Amino acid sequence: MAPSVSAAPARPPAPAPTRSRPWYRQLYFWVLFAIVSGVLTGWLWPAAGTALGPVGTTFVAAVKMLISPIVFLTVVAGIGGVDSLGRVGRVGLKSLAYFQAGTLAALLLGLLAVNVFRPGAGVHADPGTLRLEGDAARYAEQGSDQSWWHFLTDLVPTSPVGAFAEGNVLQVLFFSVLFGVALKTVGPVGAPIVDGVHRLGAVVFKILHYVMLAAPVGAFGAMAYTIGTYGISTLTGLGRLVALFYGTSLVFVVVVLGGITAFLRINIFRLLYHLREEFLLVLGTSSSESALPRLMTKLEGLGVRRDIVGLTVPTGYSFNLDGSSIYLSLAAVYIAQATDTPLGLGQQLGLLAVMLLTSKGSGGVTGAGFIALAATLSTVGTVPAAGIMLIFGVDKFMSECRALTNLAGNSVATLVVARWERVLDSARVNQVLRTGTPRPEAPGERASAPVPARR
Question: Where is this region: Disordered (predicted)?
């Protein structure tokens, strides 16, 4: 008889309680201190800040090194612990359905905001004088070569090793699901492998713990590089656009996501505070991937079933990019306004339809938001693609907000799918959010066992 998941000697550990430790020993304090120090360093000593770029990129690379194995181990362990493979397919379909609804809501909110406040009015930029140069030209070229179906054709890796080597989360997820399903169907033969997956998962998460000790150093280097290279003064020219983007994203998180969590009987502000370390890490590194492993662990600590976390979060990093969706609709219409390109309601809805596709499958790629914007403008053709040069100077500052909003959206999405599966214990979630201490799994409790929904 195959051993149950609970029989495994180890599972990825839940985050250690933070409220029992002094504030000066908590990760979020040191990451916040590093961010402020990085801003000051980049502002006062720009050359030194720019030189610190490799510090930030090295830390992000160290975290990305662990993302593929963590996704693989989490998904395989989750599927290996379910009592029905039909549940895996059901979770995947529900996740994709919610992702599409969330993307549509984010795009519509961005369109509404940019039409109401019109940040590009009065710029009167001449498209004929705009020239694509440097990284902007490279991103635009990638976007023009990107077809609307690229996220489907890129789903299947040429080899499992290649998917892990390139760190393509979507391809790793695809292979992990196939591996987990095959492992489940072979029955008792796969039991030792399932046991080995749990043991290996404990080791990989311990490595992650060691890597996260360097998070303040990585955040300091990344923020110093951003401010030193681009300068705070860069924000003044496009301040209205940046402020509108941050404000719209804040409204989306508080009102839209807050409304969803209120339906789940969960306070959005407590959830955001619970994930404060992950948000500060994303803010410091401008990469939502840097927080992916810890996000998955914390969601499990809230009582969300492992197979739901393992399928929803990695998929959401490619298909549930709420912040990127707001950015796309805002930026596209801003360029049209700035270049005096008329866009009627029908044309804007046409842009939205294209964005529903171009916004997918680019999570974690350098310049992903810019590439998706270039792909959208190249596909539609009504807005000059060269207009992306108008916002390239502040794109780095906007990428941080994109990553933060994406993280919040994927956190809520996982809770929604768990509720949809009728396994979300809202009382347990609220208890963890109040105390900051995940409830330990009871002896003999299966990781995939349904938790009765509290109504």
Answer: 434-455
Sequence-separated (6 or more) residues with CB below 8 Å from residue 207: 66
Task: Measure the CA angle with vertex 267, ends 291 and 271; round to 5°.
Answer: 15
Tokens (6 digits) for 78: 């989750």
351 close to 380: Cβ distance less than 8 angstroms: yes
Q: Which domains does the chain have, with CATH numbers?
A: 5-435 (1.10.3860.10)
Tokens linked to 218:
């990585």
72 vs 407: CA distance, rounded Å: 20
Amino acid at 390: L
Chain Cα centroid distance, residue 248? 18
**In the structure encoding, which two tokens stand for residue 220, read together?**
């300091």
Q: Look at residue 18 in the predicted model and tell me its pLDDT.
A: 43
| Structure-token match 């998941």, residue found | 5
User: According to the 3-state scheme, what is the secondary structure of the chain?
Assistant: CCCCHHHCCCCCCCCCCCCCCCHHHCHHHHHHHHHHHHHHHHHHCHHHHHHCHHHHHHHHHHHHHHHHHHHHHHHHHHHHHCCCHHHHHHHHHHHHHHHHHHHHHHHHHHHHHHHHHCCCCCCCCCHHHCCCCHHHHHHHHHHHCCCCCHHHHCCCCCCHHHHHHHCCHHHHHHHHHHHHHHHHHCHHHHHHHHHHHHHHHHHHHHHHHHHHCCHHHHHHHHHHHHHHHHCCCHHHHCHHHHHHHHHHHHHHHHHHHHHHHHHCCCCHHHHHHHCHHHHHHHHHHCCHHHHHHHHHHHHHHCCCCHHHHHHHHHHHHHHCCHHHHHHHHHHHHHHHHHCCCCCCHHHHHHHHHHHHHHCCCCCCCCCHHHHHHHHHHHHHCCCCHHHHHHCHHHHHHHHHHHHHHHHHHHHHHHHHHHHHCCCCCHHHHHHHHHHCCCCCCCCCCCCCCCCCCCC
Read off the pLDDT of each residue in 41-46 and give the average, rounded to a whole number. Answer: 89
What would the two tokens of residue 57 be?
A: 């990129």
Average pLDDT of the residues in 381-398: 75
User: What are the angstrom distances between the C-alpha of 125 and each of 7, 135, 340, 382, 418?
Assistant: 65, 21, 8, 16, 48
Task: State residue 23's pLDDT score.
Answer: 65
Residue linked to tokens 């029955």: 187
Q: Is there a contact between 291 and 142 (Cβ–Cβ < 8 Å)?
A: no
The region, left, alpha or beta by phi > 0 then psi within -120 to 50, assigned to residue 231 is left
